[in-house]
Every structure is written in structure tokens, then in C-alpha cells.
TrEMBL record:
It comes from the Bacteria. This is Uncharacterized protein. It comes from Paraburkholderia phenazinium.
Length: 118
């Protein structure tokens, strides 16, 4: 039996925040955005870790919007998007660390973005 498609708005925002954060971290560490293969891998990792399931169209939509949002947030002059803060986005288990103000800010941007695109 397969998992039903089960990403509600908050789960989509969390997955989008995870992908945006992954893009921002990759850019800080390597100077490049994540490759398409790494985005697919990151999406699969998040879905498996969180027990989520999404169809291919939803995955592609969120993946493509993640890079768009990461590029927008990279230009924000806010201190939460400094190099030091980006490096604290993830816990040891590769989950977003929502104790971080940066992770919460990215999540809020993603949630607002998704609500505005409905």
C-alpha cells in the first residue's frame, strides 16, 4: 500500500523552506546553487524523513519555486541571512532547526509565498 498524497499547506511550506535553505547553504559553501539532481535528492530525503508524499507535479512546482525564493532571499539585507546564520539552519540530522530565527524567517516567507500563489 502506498502513502496517499498528503502535503497540506504547512507541509508544502516546510518542504519549500527546506529546499530554499538547502539552496542558500549550498550557495554559501560552494558559490553555486544546488544541481537538479541534488534538489531531487533533497526533496526525496525530506519526504521520506517526514512521511510525506507528493505527486511529481507538486514536487516540480516546489523545487522550481525554491530556487526562485532562494535567489530573492539571498539579496535581503537582513542579518538573519548572513553567512554565519545560513550555516546554522540545519540540525545534525539534516532537518531544519526551527530554533534558528533564520529557519523560521525562511519558513514564513515560504508560507506567505504559497498563500499568495493559490
Amino acid at each position: 500500500m502506498t502513502n496517499p498524497l498528503n502535503l497540506d499547506l504547512r507541509a508544502r511550506a516546510e518542504l519549500l523552506a527546506y529546499l530554499v535553505s538547502s539552496h542558500l547553504l549550498a550557495k554559501q559553501l560552494t558559490g553555486e546553487w544546488l544541481s537538479h539532481g541534488h534538489v531531487v535528492e533533497s526533496t526525496t530525503l525530506w519526504l521520506n524523513t517526514n512521511g510525506g508524499n507528493a505527486d511529481i507535479l507538486e514536487r516540480v512546482m516546489l523545487s522550481s519555486r525554491a530556487l526562485e525564493l532562494a535567489r530573492q532571499l539571498e539579496t535581503e539585507p537582513l542579518p538573519v541571512f548572513s553567512r554565519q546564520m545560513i550555516c546554522t539552519l540545519f540540525c545534525e540530522n539534516l532537518r531544519l532547526d526551527f530554533r534558528s530565527e533564520t529557519a523560521r524567517t525562511i519558513y514564513q516567507h515560504c508560507l506567505t509565498y504559497l498563500v499568495g500563489t493559490r
